[in-house]
């Protein structure tokens, strides 16, 4: 059985993309690699490497 904190963490992982994970982790080089092959994410207003 999952505890609530772990469950929320798993749900968060399920609903974010690899490029968002890279951006949140400060891995700009990974964001630059993923950007050309990632579909635009509607919730991201500034769709650029710096905007993500």
Annotate the secondary structure layout.
Blueprint: H1 4-14, H2 18-24, H3 28-34
Signal peptide: 1-23
Keywords: Signal
InterPro entries: Cul2-RING_E3_ligase_SR
Keywords:
single chain; 52 residues; mainly alpha; 48% helix; 0% strand; Cul2-RING_E3_ligase_SR; signal
Give a written overview of the molecule.
This protein is mostly helical and 52 residues long. The protein has a domain at 18-52. The chain has three helices and no strands. The protein has helices spanning 4-14, 18-24, 28-34. Helix 2 (18-24) runs antiparallel to helix 3. The termini are far apart. The relative contact order is 0.14. Keywords: Signal. InterPro entries: Cul2-RING_E3_ligase_SR. Residues 1-23 form the signal peptide.
